[in-house]
Amino acid sequence: MVEAPAQASGLQPRWARLQIMGLLMVAAGPIVFLIASMAFGQDLSEDVGFIAVILAVPLIAAWLVSRYGTWAKVVGAVVGLAAALMLFWAAFGLATPQSFFEFMFGVLVTPGALIALISGVAAVVASRRGHVSAKATGGEASAMRAIRLAIVGLAVMSAIVTAVGHSTASSAGASATIRMKNSKFEPKAYDVAPGSTVFVKNDDPIIHTFTIKALGIDRKVNPRSSVLITIPSRPGNFVLYCKLHSGDPPDLSDQNDMAAAFEIR
């Protein structure tokens, strides 16, 4: 017997609407990323396929959950689990409220995936017990309201912290300009004098670090911020890298590492 669409009767098992909200939160994550990338002029040519998948799959799952019965809730729970595993790195954004887009990506994707998984299981159980209704009620309705308020509150808080944490320095007198763009250093090699000052500008919507481990330099640079960093009087060849977006120690031959050659002479 083919299961009829749930929408035909206007009824959904308890927690199914919360599952839909969780899936929509996961889909909203890449939308935030796209907005940030366009606003900051980032090159998305290498990430188009990945972004399309993490945007489309949860949207399709949310539609299935809204239209069909138990099997669709199971699919939605599986999508939630897959998103939690594949996008585990989104959780790191929760530790960076001073980086609005990075933080909101984490706020939407990580909790959204867990909500889709847990509420999906709960919806299957509720369906088997015959707990259905035409709209969200009780604890489900309260949870949905609380989540909406939390998202808005966290977005406002992060926007304020990001604005306060923004810094602007002057490049006057700097011996070199180091630009962070598309999670890369531009250019890829630097030659500076001992004791000189370098001008560092982050043109990405995410936090980067200016790290030269051998020299004890480890400086966070917030999105759209610029700083001046004094280089020690210690001649030699070193590796400049972002410890958030490269291995430790970094490999200059690895195109995935955000690293550059740094010579002091």
Question: Which tags fit this structure?
Answer:
2 domains, Immunoglobulin-like, 265 residues, alpha+beta
Q: What this model shows, in words?
A:
The protein folds into 2 domains: 6-165, no CATH class; 176-264, Sandwich (Immunoglobulin-like). The protein contains 5 helices and 11 strands. The chain has helices at residues 16-39, 48-67, 70-86, 100-128, 138-165, and strands at 12-13, 132-133, 176-181, 184-186, 189-192, 197-202, 208-212, 217-221, 226-230, 236-241, 259-264. The strands form 4 sheets. The chain has a 4-stranded mixed beta sheet, with no helix packed on it. Strand 7 and strand 8 (217-221) form a beta hairpin. Helix 4 packs antiparallel against helix 5 (138-165). It is elongated.
